[in-house]
Specification:
Blueprint (H helix, E strand, L loop, with lengths): L2 H4 L30 H9 L3 H11 L5 H17 L3 H14 L3 H17 L4 H17 L18 H22 L8 H14 L6 H20 L3 H16 L8 H16 L3 H17 L3 H17 L3 H19 L1
Helix pairs in contact: 2-3, 2-4, 3-4, 4-5, 5-6, 6-7, 6-8, 7-8, 8-9, 8-10, 9-10, 10-11, 11-12, 12-13, 13-14, 14-15
Length: 333
C-alpha cells in the first residue's frame, strides 16, 4: 500500500487468490506439519521461513503445474522477507511462465512490480510489469453480471486484479515524485485518480478478497489525505466510508471492525489526539487477542504502549510493552 511511501521498509502485497490461503488447513498439525500449500502459507503468516523452505525443498519437482505456480509464489514471498529480492523476482517470473490464467499472470506481475518499486527502487521495471499485467487482463473474458467481473477462463476476478494494478500505479506515482526529490503533493491527483478507479472496480461483491481490497484502498485514500495534513478528511474516509463497507460484509469475529478501529486510532494519534486514539487501539487489541492473531496483537500492543507513553502514563506503558515482549518471545519459541 501507500504506507510504504512514508515507510520504504513496508511491502504490502495482495492476499493470495483461492488455493493459497493462509487460514486453517486440515493437513496442518498442531506443530505446523504442513502437507499442503495452505499449511505452508500458515507458516509464512507466522514468519516461520525455515519450515517453508524445508517443505518447499521436499515438494520440488513432484507437483502438477497449478501447484508449481503456488510453489513459486510461496518461495518468492519467503525470499522477499529474507531480503533476497532478485531471487524472489526470478521465482515470480518462473510462475508467470507456468500460469495458465491471465488473471493469475497479472497477479504475479503485480507482485514483481511491488518488488521492483519498493525493494529495488526501479520504477521503470515496475511500470513495465504493471503494463504487462494490464495487457494480460485485456486477454481475459469478463463473465456475466452474477460473476461481477469474473474471468471466464478459470474463475479469476479480473476487476479485482485490475484494481490491484491501479493501486500499484498510485504508489508508483508518489514514489516517482519522491525519488525525483519533488514535492510528493505533485503526484496526489494522479495517485488519487488511480485509487478511485480501483475502488469503483470493487465497490460491489462480498468475497473476502474484495472486502480486503476495499479496506486497503480506503486506507490508502485516507493515507493520501493524511500526508497532505487533511486529518479530518482522512478520518471521515475511515469512519464513514468504512462504516458503509462494514455493513456489507460478514464480520462475526470482528476482524474488519478491529482493522477500522486500528486505522482510525493511528490517524488520531498522528494528528495529536492520543487520548482519543487509546480506547480504539485497545478495542482493536482485544479483538485480535480473542481471534488469536499473535502478530496483529503484537503490533497493537506496541501502539497501545506508545499512546500511553506519549500521554505520560509511563508505568502503564511499561507493563504493556513487557506483556507484548513476553508474548513475542513465546511466539518465537
Amino acid at each position: 500500500g501507500l504506507q510504504g511511501v512514508a515507510d520504504p521498509d513496508m511491502l504490502a502485497a495482495p492476499p493470495a487468490p483461492a488455493g493459497m490461503s493462509a487460514g486453517p488447513d486440515p493437513d496442518r498439525g498442531p506443530r505446523g506439519s504442513a502437507r499442503t500449500i495452505a499449511g505452508a502459507c500458515a507458516w509464512l503468516a507466522d514468519q516461520n521461513y525455515d519450515a517453508c523452505l524445508v517443505w518447499s525443498a521436499d515438494q520440488a519437482g513432484g507437483q502438477a503445474v497449478p501447484h508449481e505456480v503456488d510453489h513459486h509464489r510461496l518461495l518468492a514471498l519467503v525470499l522477499t522477507n529474507l531480503g533476497r529480492h532478485d531471487a524472489a523476482i526470478a521465482e515470480l517470473e518462473a510462475a508467470v511462465a507456468k500460469a495458465a490464467r491471465p488473471g493469475m499472470r497479472a497477479h504475479l506481475l503485480y507482485m514483481q512490480a511491488l518488488l521492483h518499486a519498493k525493494r529495488r527502487f526501479d520504477l521503470e521495471r515496475s511500470d513495465a510489469c504493471l503494463a504487462r499485467a494490464h495487457a494480460e487482463l485485456d486477454l481475459a473474458v469478463p463473465g456475466g453480471t452474477d460473476a461481477i467481473g469474473m474471468d471466464a477462463i478459470g474463475g479469476g476476478d479480473v476487476a479485482m486484479e485490475r484494481a490491484w494494478l491501479h493501486n500499484g500505479q498510485a504508489m508508483n506515482a508518489l514514489l516517482r515524485a519522491r525519488f525525483a526529490r519533488r514535492p510528493v503533493a505533485e503526484a496526489f491527483p494522479e495517485a488519487y485518480r488511480h485509487l478511485c478507479t480501483a475502488f469503483e472496480a470493487v465497490r460491489e461483491g462480498r468475497s473476502p478478497d474484495r472486502t480486503y481490497l476495499r479496506f486497503n484502498l480506503l486506507g490508502n485514500m485516507s493515507k493520501l489525505m493524511e500526508i497532505r495534513g487533511e486529518y479530518a478528511v482522512a478520518l471521515d474516509l475511515i469512519t464513514r466510508t468504512f462504516g458503509d463497507t462494514l455493513d456489507t460484509v460478514e464480520d462475526a469475529a470482528g476482524h474488519w471492525e478491529a482493522s477500522r478501529n486500528a486505522m482510525q486510532a493511528a490517524i488520531m494519534a498522528r494528528s495529536g489526539d492520543r487520548a482519543g486514539a487509546l480506547p480504539l487501539f485497545r478495542a482493536a487489541l482485544d479483538a485480535m487477542s480473542r481471534a488469536d492473531r499473535p502478530l496483529a496483537r503484537e503490533m497493537l500492543q506496541r501502539s497501545v504502549g506508545c499512546a500511553l507513553l506519549d500521554l505520560g502514563r509511563v508505568d502503564e506503558a511499561a507493563e504493556v510493552f513487557a506483556e507484548g515482549l513476553a508474548a513475542a518471545l513465546d511466539q518465537r519459541n
